[in-house]
Amino acid sequence: MRLMARAGLVVEQALVAAASRAVAGATTRDLDGAAAAVIGARGASPSFLGYHGYPATICVSINDEVVHGIPGGRALADGDVVSIDCGAIVQGWHGDSAVSLIVGRARNSGDEELVAATRDALWDGIAALARARTIADVAGAIEDAATFAGLVPVEGYVGHGIGTEMHQDPEVPNERLRGREPRVRPGLCVAIEPMLTAGGRGTVVLEDGWTVRTADGSRAAHWEHSVALHDGGIWVLTASDGGVPELTRRGVVPVAP
Ligand code: MG
Ligand code: MG
Fold first, then answer.
1. Would the pLDDT of 180 be above 70?
2. Of 22, 125, 211, 232, which has fewest CB within 10 angstroms of its CB?
3. What pTM value is reported for the model?
4. Number of domains forming the structure of the chain
5. Which residue range(s) make up the domain with 105?
6. Which residues make Cβ contacts (< 8 Å) with residue 147, sequence separation at least 6?
7. How far is CA 139 from CA 33, 61, 112, 158, 174, in A?
8. Closest ligand to 191 CA?
9. What is the 148 CA–ligand 1 centroid distance (Å)?
């Protein structure tokens, strides 16, 4: 768990570097370079690069893109909703986290609420893990937060266990799904990642074979943290404060592993 915590902090720093470059006129490749530099400087390696042939260090998904956008020459514009997803490996152990932000000033009404409510859904899901009997308790907390905000989880994309592989069992859905109720036990590490939209739930994959966007063109946001459940409690591995501010607000006191 110590190595996963180190991987988590590398991811956090890489995301901070990438997000700080997310200004109008910057290309998504600029963000990728910033994240790659941090990961390299820390002696870690990117989880995504080469994963099933994925060609970059991060995913940058803009506006109606939900996840898996490939960095390239596209320039960011004022008001874009940008989701940045990053993973890193330290001595074989993975961390995985994502943030969403708005470039400059919001252009569309509802964008700020979309980004903030998706972040709230993530933290509600993490807080639920501290008390969960099964993964369905986490999924239900995310679904409830989405519903409260008038948003829906996109169909077919879920969180996951994480450890020596980036994607392990169990799946962590963003809504209550019958028959998806693995028990929650100490030693579990999961990446919780709500992907929410104000529009329809359907998605399509672009011709690049990776980029997932909403079928109806509505904007989407994506937030993610890797979280450890250990004998003493929970700890957010991809946050240097372990998630203390957001979790104590929700009645959960994180405990360092
Ligand atoms: Mg991710
Ligand atoms: Mg993930």
1. no
2. 232
3. 0.98
4. 1
5. 2-249
6. none
7. 34, 23, 23, 9, 5
8. 2
9. 24
The pLDDT score that the predictor gives to residue 257 is 87
Rounded to the nearest angstrom, the distance between the alpha carbon of 250 and the centre of ligand 1 is 24
Q: Looking at residue 201, which CATH number applies to its domain?
A: 3.90.230.10
**234 pLDDT more than 80:** yes
Q: According to the model, what pLDDT value does residue 177 have?
A: 84
User: How far is ligand 2, taken at its centre, from the CA of residue 25, in Å?
Assistant: 28
**Cα separation, 40 vs 233, whole angstroms:** 31
Strands 195-197 and 212-214: unpaired
Nearest ligand, measured from the Cα of 223? 1
- Rounded to the nearest whole angstrom, what is the distance from the C-alpha of residue 85 to the centroid of ligand 1? 5
Burial (Cβ within 10 Å: 0-12, 13-18, ≥19) of residue 50: exposed
Residue type for 68, please?
A: H
Residue type, 50: G
Ligand lying nearest the CA atom of residue 162? 2
Compute CA 221 distance to the chain's CA centroid, rounded to the nearest angstrom: 9
179 falls within a domain: yes
pLDDT in tens, 84-93: 999 999 999 9
